[in-house]
Design brief:
Blueprint: E1 5-10, H1 14-25, E2 30-33, E3 45-47, E4 53-55, E5 63-64, H2 67-73, E6 79-81, E7 86-90, E8 93-97, H3 101-108, H4 115-125, H5 135-143, H6 145-160, H7 169-173, E9 190-194, H8 198-209, E10 212-214, E11 228-233, H9 237-240, E12 250-260, E13 276-278, E14 287-289, H10 292-295, E15 302-311, E16 321-322, H11 326-341, E17 345-347, H12 350-353, H13 359-373
Parallel strand pairs: 1-2, 1-11, 2-10, 7-13, 11-17
Antiparallel strand pairs: 3-4, 5-9, 6-9, 7-8, 12-15, 12-16, 13-14, 14-15
Amino acid sequence: MRDRYDYLIVGAGLSGLVLAERLGSLGRSCLVVERRNHIGGNCHDRRDKNGLFYHVYGPHYFRTNSELVRAYLSRFTDWTDAKYRVNVFTRGRFWSFPINLGTFRQFSGNPAATEADFKGYLERSALPIASPANSKEAILSAVGPELYELFYRGYTEKQWGRPAEALDASVCRRIPIHPGLDERYFKDEFQALPRDGYQPMFERMLEASKADLRLETDYRDVVKGVPHGHLIYTGPIDEYFDCRYGPLPYRTARYALEEIDAANVPAGGFVQPVLQVNYPGPEAFTRTVELKHVTGQSSRHSNLVREFPSEYRPGESDPNYPIPGAESDDLASRYRGLAEKVQGVTFIGRLAQYRYLNMDQVVGAALHAFDKMA
């Protein structure tokens, strides 16, 4: 450990590690402080007892249209191309999802239905809402009440702990609707997973940074005792200010790993038909993920991770998802206003900016922040 650091970086997730590596490339000294016992933040992955990858904090499907982000991360990993496919299980069957012509054929009971039939149904069913004010209105204006009830209402309430009408329209708009037989969940040009897993990629980034690392450490326990020139903060923005205006709402989740031995895996090698299955019904969990569908690993075994969402409680769980909606927008703006006035601190990342950002957006923002610092 040094007597003094150029930068004290709070959090060893994507934002913190990208900035540590970039600043280290200029010879800047960094101390990375992480309160968990590992690096990588919520992107952390491991292997189960059979050597199969799983994502500890729920699925993290990397995709991007940014050549800058892709080129940067490719310095630390090779990739396995991935086709992220999702089904919904409800009414006793698996449904093609996101909603597409195949979904409509299942729903209508007409396997010969055409794109024109599907578009006609949407035109008849969609409600005339010109400017949706929330996620419920966004979906009703796109597909109408029948498909909203079937696929969105129950899942949204379980995932976010509040009805769709309490959420910003952007939350459900993230899910595409395809008029044809396109079953892709994402349309990004580049969709892949790190070939050796996320964790080795993060370890290479940390090694390249030459930064010092303290795990299982709350930054508040060291910030006054470790001389540093600049603080980079990636934690919850409200906690930095001791929740001066009250706590921001977050959702968290419990993730249950089920390791499945070969004797219980069907002959095809998988226990569910696609990578991810969503459950909008009465089940306590929202989704199950069988990562072997996209890792390229060959094994007679498999695993599933079930996700059980809940409300975030400081000290008891981790804040995973900022909740975009009327209840949080004004409060988050007040905290961002405080952050803008703080000298010597950079607030960056999903939690520090209180924004629902994808992984490539986080990396891109960190690279942009580095350019400004450099």
